[in-house]
C-alpha cells in the first residue's frame, strides 16, 4: 500500500496485532435472527435440513422430495413443488405491510422515490401485462439491460410473474457484450431505457441496444423505459421499438395471475466470465434459489421486515439479484437503491443517503471500503447514521481495510460479515452467522449451515481440514442455491465445475464435488480464508473478468499479432488487467495502437474492463506446445520472482520482456 492508502488512524495497526477476533456487540446478539448454534446441526441434517429454508416461502404445491440426487451433477431441489417468485416477493406481503416501503430509490441528482409494497404490486402487475402484450410468454428469455432505476427490479419481478426467465446484463456492458448475450440466451426481447445519470451527465444508454440490434444474429423485440416521463431530449428512439409507457398506459390497473412454476423451472440466467472466451449463462432454478437467498438474507444479513437495508451493489451482478431484489423483498423488508456513484457530487454521498433513510444494514465491497479509506474519515464524520450490521462481498478484504470499516463506518458497534460466494452458488456459502461466531478480520469465516467446503490438492487428494494448508476450494455436497447448469450447455457445466475433482462416471453424488476455482486455507480455528482465483478469471474492483475474454477483444485489433492478459495487483481495485502485445510485422508500436487496443476492450466488453497498461513486447513466454504462460507475465507485472521458466520453448523470453518493460 502507498502512503496515502494507509489508515488514517495509526492505532489500527496496533489493534490488529493485539486482537485476532472481535466479538459481536451484545446489543446485536440480543436482537439477532439466529442465536442458537444448533442451526448448524439442524440445517446440516442433509438434505432434509434445507426444508426449513423452503418453509420460509409460500408454495402453491408442496414438494414431494427435498433432493433428487440420482443424476449428479444435475440435482433437483424441492421436487414436485410449485411456486412463483413474484408472488413471494410482492403479493404475500400485502396483508401485513401494503403501505410499507419496498423500494427506496434515490437518483444520482437527489430525486427520491418511495415505492410501497402496494405500489410495487401495481407496477409489477402492469409491467407483466405490458410484457405479455408485447409477446412475452412463459419460458421466453427476456434480456434486461437496465441501470439502477426502479424499472430494473420491477421488470425482473414482472418476468418472474409470467414465468419468463430474465437475463440481466449489467448496464456497463457494451453493445457487443449485450448482443453476444442476446444470441447466447436465444432471447427475443431486450428491455432497455433511454438513458440514466453518471456523474451529472445523461448517458444515452439506448445506443447500446441500437448497436446490439445491428450486430446480433437474432432480431429481438426492443422495449424501452424512459428515465423521466418523456424521452430525454438528447436521445432518439427507433420507430421499431416499443415504448413501455405506451404499453403500460394500455394496461393500467391490469393484473396478471402469477404463474405457478415448477421448483426446477429456471428463474433467471446470469452470464459470467469463465475460463474461455465466451461467457457462461449460469441458470438458476426457482424453488431452490429463492429458498436459499431468503434464508441467507435472514440468517446471515439478519434482515427483518422493519429494517431499512441497503446493498450498494448493482443489480446487474449476482449480488444485486440475490441481496437487493430476491432475498430482501422475499422477507418483506425495505431495500434501498441508489442510481449513481459514491463520489458524485461529493465524497459523502453514501453517508448522506445512510443518514437520510436511517439505514440499519449496509452491504458493500472491499474495493469500496478501500476507496472510502483513501478518501479519509473526514468524509464520514458529521453524518448521523447507525448501522447495526455491515457486509462485504466479492473479494478478500485486507485486515487494515476491515478494521477501518469497523471503526469509522460501523463505529465499533456494528457486526461485519465477509461473505464468500459466486454467481454460480446463488447465495453465501462461507461466512459467519453474525451473532454466533466472532469476527476475524481478513477471513470470510465459517461454512454456512448445511454447506460443506473442503480443500484438495491439484491431484484431487483431500487436504486435511483445518491444517492451514492452501488448496483448491471445493464444495462436497449440493445445496439449494447452486446453479442448475450452464444454459444450453450441460457439457460445459460438467467441464467447468465438476470434472476436475469428481468421478464423472459415478452415479453416486458422494463422488462428485463442485470446483469453485478459488484457492483457500482453513485455519485451526475452522475459519476460511479465500485467497483468490486459481483459473484465468480476474477480479477487478469486484467485477469478474475472464482473461480469455479480454484477449479475444484485443485480438480484434488488426495491428495485433498476439496478446496475453495478466492480472496486476492493485491497492485500490484488487487486480487490474495488463495487456502484453506483440504487433504484426511492419506495425509501429505507438500510442495510437495502444489506444485502439483500449477502445477494442471497451467496445467488446465495457469501460469497466479497460486495461491498466498496454505493453509492447517482442515475444510472449510460451511452452513447447505453444501455450502462453500467463503466470510468468503475472509475475513480471507484479515485480515478483519469475518462477520456473524451464518448460518454456525459449527460456530467455521472460528476462527480455522484463528488460523491455522495466528498462533495466
Ligand atoms: C471472489 C460475487 C474473497 C472469488 C458474489 C469468487 C471473494 C468470485 C469473496 C466470484 C470473499 C467473492 N472473499 N473472495 N468474501 N466473495 N470472492 O461470481 O474469487 O462475481 O470466486 O460473485 O469473487 O465472483 P462473482
Automatic annotation (TrEMBL):
Gene Ontology biological process terms from the UniProt entry: acetyl-CoA biosynthetic process from acetate
EC number: 6.2.1.1
Domain AMP-dependent synthetase/ligase per the UniProt entry, residue ranges: 91-479
Claim: Iron is one of the keywords in the record: no
Record domain AMP-binding enzyme C-terminal: where: 549-627
GO MF term set: acetate-CoA ligase activity; AMP binding; ATP binding
PROSITE patterns attached to this UniProt entry: AMP_BINDING
Coiled-coil residue spans: none
Transmembrane region(s): none
Keywords carried by this UniProt record: ATP-binding, Ligase, Nucleotide-binding
Region called Disordered, residue ranges: 639-664
Domain Acetyl-coenzyme A synthetase N-terminal, residue spans: 48-89
Biased composition annotated in UniProt, kind: Basic and acidic residues: 652-664
Domain of life (superkingdom): Archaea
InterPro entries, alphabetized: Ac_CoA_lig, ACAS_N, AMP-bd_C, AMP-bd_C_sf, AMP-binding_CS, AMP-dep_synth/lig_dom, ANL_N_sf
PANTHER family named among the record's database cross-references: ACETYL-COENZYME A SYNTHETASE, ACETYL-COENZYME A SYNTHETASE 1
Family (UniProt): Belongs to the ATP-dependent AMP-binding enzyme family.
The protein, known as: Acetate--CoA ligase
Species the sequence originates in: Haloglomus irregulare
Amino acid at each position: 500500500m502507498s502512503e496515502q492508502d494507509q489508515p488514517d488512524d495509526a492505532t489500527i495497526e496496533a489493534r490488529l496485532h493485539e486482537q485476532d477476533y472481535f466479538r459481536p456487540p451484545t446489543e446485536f446478539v440480543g436482537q439477532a435472527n439466529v442465536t442458537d448454534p444448533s442451526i448448524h446441526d439442524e440445517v446440516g441434517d442433509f438434505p432434509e435440513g434445507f426444508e426449513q429454508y423452503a418453509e420460509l416461502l409460500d408454495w402453491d404445491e408442496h414438494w414431494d422430495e427435498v433432493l433428487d440426487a440420482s443424476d449428479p451433477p444435475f440435482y433437483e431441489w424441492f421436487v414436485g413443488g410449485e411456486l412463483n417468485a413474484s408472488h413471494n416477493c410482492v403479493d404475500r406481503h400485502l396483508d401485513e405491510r401494503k403501505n410499507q416501503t419496498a423500494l427506496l430509490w434515490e437518483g444520482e441528482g437527489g430525486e427520491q422515490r418511495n415505492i410501497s409494497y402496494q405500489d410495487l404490486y401495481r407496477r409489477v402487475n402492469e409491467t407483466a401485462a405490458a410484457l405479455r402484450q408485447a409477446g412475452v410468454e412463459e419460458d421466453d428469455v427476456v434480456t434486461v439491460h437496465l441501470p439502477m432505476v426502479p424499472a430494473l427490479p420491477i421488470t425482473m419481478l414482472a418476468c418472474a410473474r409470467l414465468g419468463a426467465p430474465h437475463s440481466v446484463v449489467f448496464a456497463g456492458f457494451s453493445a457487443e457484450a449485450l448482443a453476444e448475450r442476446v444470441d447466447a440466451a436465444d432471447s427475443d426481447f431486450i428491455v432497455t431505457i433511454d438513458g440514466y445519470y453518471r456523474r451529472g451527465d445523461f448517458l444515452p444508454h439506448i445506443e447500446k441496444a441500437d448497436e446490439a440490434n445491428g450486430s446480433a444474429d437474432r432480431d429481438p423485440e426492443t422495449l424501452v423505459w424512459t428515465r423521466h416521463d418523456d424521452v430525454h431530449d438528447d436521445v432518439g428512439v427507433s420507430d421499431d421499438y416499443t415504448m413501455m409507457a405506451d404499453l403500460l398506459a394500455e394496461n393500467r390497473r391490469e393484473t396478471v395471475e402469477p404463474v405457478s412454476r415448477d421448483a426446477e423451472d429456471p428463474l433467471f440466467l446470469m452470464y459470467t466470465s469463465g475460463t474461455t472466451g465466451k461467457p457462461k449463462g449460469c441458470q438458476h432454478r426457482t424453488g431452490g434459489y429463492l429458498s436459499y437467498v431468503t434464508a441467507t438474507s435472514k440468517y446471515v444479513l439478519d434482515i427483518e421486515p422493519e429494517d431499512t437495508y441497503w446493498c450498494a451493489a448493482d443489480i446487474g451482478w449476482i449480488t444485486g439479484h440475490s441481496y437487493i431484489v430476491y432475498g430482501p423483498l422475499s422477507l418483506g423488508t425495505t431495500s434501498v437503491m441508489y442510481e449513481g456513484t459514491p463520489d458524485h457530487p461529493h465524497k459523502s454521498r453514501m453517508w448522506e443517503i445512510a443518514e437520510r433513510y436511517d439505514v440499519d444494514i449496509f452491504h458493500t465491497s472491499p474495493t469500496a471500503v478501500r476507496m472510502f479509506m483513501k478518501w479519509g474519515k473526514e468524509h464520514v464524520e458529521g453524518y448521523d447514521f447507525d448501522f447495526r450490521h455491515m457486509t462485504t462481498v466479492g473479494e478478500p478484504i485486507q485486515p487494515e481495510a476491515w478494521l477501518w470499516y469497523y471503526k469509522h463506518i460501523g463505529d465499533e458497534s456494528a457486526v461485519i460479515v465477509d461473505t464468500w460466494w459466486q454467481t454460480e452458488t446463488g447465495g453465501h456459502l462461507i461466512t459467519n452467522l453474525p451473532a454466533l461466531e466472532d469476527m476475524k478480520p481478513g477471513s470470510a469465516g465459517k461454512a454456512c449451515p448445511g454447506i460443506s467446503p473442503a480443500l484438495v490438492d491439484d491431484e484431487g487428494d483431500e487436504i486435511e481440514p483445518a491444517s492451514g494448508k492452501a488448496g483448491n476450494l471445493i464444495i462436497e455436497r449440493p445445496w439449494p442455491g447452486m446453479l442448475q447448469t450452464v444454459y444450453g450447455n450441460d457439457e460445459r457445466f460438467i467441464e467447468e465445475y465438476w470434472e476436475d475433482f469428481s468421478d464423472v462416471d459415478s452415479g453416486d453424488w458422494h463422488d462428485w464435488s463442485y470446483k469453485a476455482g478459488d484457492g483457500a486455507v482453513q485455519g485451526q480455528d475452522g475459519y476460511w480464508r479465500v485467497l483468490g482465483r486459481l483459473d484465468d478469471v480476474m477480479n477487478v474492483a469486484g467485477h469478474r473478468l475472464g482473461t480469455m475474454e479480454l484477449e479475444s477483444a484485443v485480438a480484434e485489433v488488426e495491428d495485433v499479432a498476439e496478446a496475453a492478459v495478466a492480472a496486476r495487483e492493485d491497492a485500490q481495485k484488487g487486480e487490474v488487467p495488463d495487456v502484453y502485445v506483440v504487433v504484426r510485422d511492419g506495425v509501429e508500436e505507438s500510442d495510437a495502437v495502444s489506444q485502439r487496443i483500449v477502445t477494442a476492450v471497451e467496445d467488446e466488453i465495457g469501460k469497466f474492463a479497460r486495461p491498466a497498461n498496454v505493453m509492447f513486447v517482442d515475444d510472449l513466454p510460451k511452452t513447447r506446445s505453444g501455450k502462453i504462460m500467463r503466470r510468468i507475465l503475472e509475475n513480471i507485472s507484479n515485480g515478483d520472482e519469475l518462477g520456473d521458466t524451464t518448460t518454456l520453448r525459449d527460456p530467455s523470453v521472460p528476462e527480455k520482456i522484463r528488460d523491455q518493460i522495466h528498462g533495466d
